[in-house]
Amino acid sequence: MKTQMKNRTIRNSGGNSSCRNWKRQAGVTLIEAMISLALSLLVTSAMVVLMANSLGTSTRVIHMSQLTDEMRNAMSMMTRDVRRANYSANSLYCYGYSKCGFAGGNAEQTGDIQIGAGGSCFTFTLDRGFDGDATNDAVGAFRRVTTGGVGVIEMWIGAGGTTPDCASAAGAANWIELTDPTTVNITALTIDDAGSFTKEFSESKTSTFDSRQREIHIVMQGRLRLEEDMVTAGSLDQTIVARELEDIIYVRNDFIVPTI
User: Fold this and answer.
1) 72 lies in a domain?
2) Number of folded domains that form the chain
3) Would you say residue 68 lies in a domain?
4) What DSSP line would sit under 80-125, residue for residue?
5) Are 99 and 209 in contact (CB under 8 A)?
6) Which residue range is the domain that position 113 belongs to?
7) pLDDT tier at 67 (50, 70, 90 boundaries)?
């Protein structure tokens, strides 16, 4: 009887001891908590950096698209107009008669494409009224000017009979802005016709004339104003979003120049 009671006491004692040990291990130690906190902080920091990089990349893509659209619109207007330079509604009469562009001819040409202001401005004539006479239509012209330190592409909108002045003050009444100076800074515009060439023709061995085939090369460079302002304020080291557009235009209408 005493032996059975003693065994029962041992079993109870062992059971109580196991219960106490289990309660002691129910939580975590301070070191374990600090390690878990450090790992969580590390993972969270990595996620924040990844999200910031993703958002920054998306923002730059949006800015680049905005800059590209603004510059392409201006380039498209320039290339569209200069491609049709010296167009005349009477050009059909030139079929079989190459000298019709001479002074007094059916498709008289009033002037070749002129490049001035250091290659940042050009002018041209165009029969906009489709009446065969370009002298009563507005001369076409585009230029780059600087307003308040910001480069802008402008288009001439003066009436017929007026002559574009590439060197006139920015914002003159006969010029209209094609690019938004609050959004884009056009840092450079270069136009050249180095690819053009002239051929000499002869008729009846009594007179000669030159026909000039023109190739216009346009290069435009621009930056986003938003980033330039951030650089000025010191919140950005350098401008990231910049763009350069280049186009080569083959003028459809040759320019006829009488020589003798």
Assistant:
1) yes
2) 1
3) yes
4) HHHHTTT--TTGGGGTT-GGGGSTTSTT------EEEGGGTEEEE-
5) yes
6) 55-258
7) confident
Percent of the chain residues topping a pLDDT of 70 = 75
Is 10 within a domain?
A: no
CB 251 within 8 A of CB 80: no
E strands of the chain, at which residues?
A: 114-116, 121-124, 140-147, 150-156, 175-177, 184-192, 197-203, 207-213, 215-224, 242-250, 255-258
**Is 150 a member of any domain?**
yes
Classify residue 134 by burial, with Cβ atoms within 10 Å: 0-12, 13-18, 19+.
buried
Instruction: Supply the pTM of this predicted model.
Output: 0.71
Distance CA 220, CA 78 (A): 11
User: Which pLDDT belongs to residue 259?
Assistant: 57
Sign for the pseudo-dihedral over CA of 204, 207, 208, 209: negative
